[in-house]
Amino acid sequence: MTQSTATTPSTTATAPATGTATPARLAEDTSQGRTTIAASVVQKIAGIAAREISGVHSMGGGVSRAFGAIRERIPGGGTGAANIAGVQVEVGEKQAAIDLDIVVEYGVAIVDLARAVRRNVITAVERMTGLEVIEVNIAVNDIHLPDGDEGEEAPAAQTSRVE
């Protein structure tokens, strides 16, 4: 038993140094085996949990949504960790940090929405992975307006009130 105790710390000490080489992180290491969770799994869980909250229109900024739409049309382009628009994660051996870019529906109280999204993401990721979520940063990039306002160019046709 002393040998496995000495082996475990050296395994956990070397894993962060090779973070780019190993896409999956240690979530549980027991005498019966090891469980690892890929960063893409945490990314998907966080994205789904954020979208579950009423008032979140979509994920990602304008550019990431546009690239995401293009990737969806390319065969094989819609898979992988980098393809979840608006969700970035850092996953360590026991902790995770999550950054979300969201577009909210017009009229929603943004502070309350961010609080609900943060709570739901933390709960889902911690429950499903066992990782401790140390932070969820939320950037509101846009507000989705009700339909019908997209095709108009009324401000260009009106005279300016200021000179």
From TrEMBL:
Biased composition (Low complexity): 1-24
Superkingdom of source: Bacteria
Database matches in InterPro entries: Asp23
Annotated segments matching region Disordered: 1-32
UniProt family annotation: Belongs to the asp23 family.
PANTHER family: ALKALINE SHOCK PROTEIN 23, HYPOTHETICAL CYTOSOLIC PROTEIN-RELATED
Designated name of the protein: Asp23/Gls24 family envelope stress response protein
Classification of source organism: Bacteria, Bacillati, Actinomycetota, Actinomycetes, Pseudonocardiales
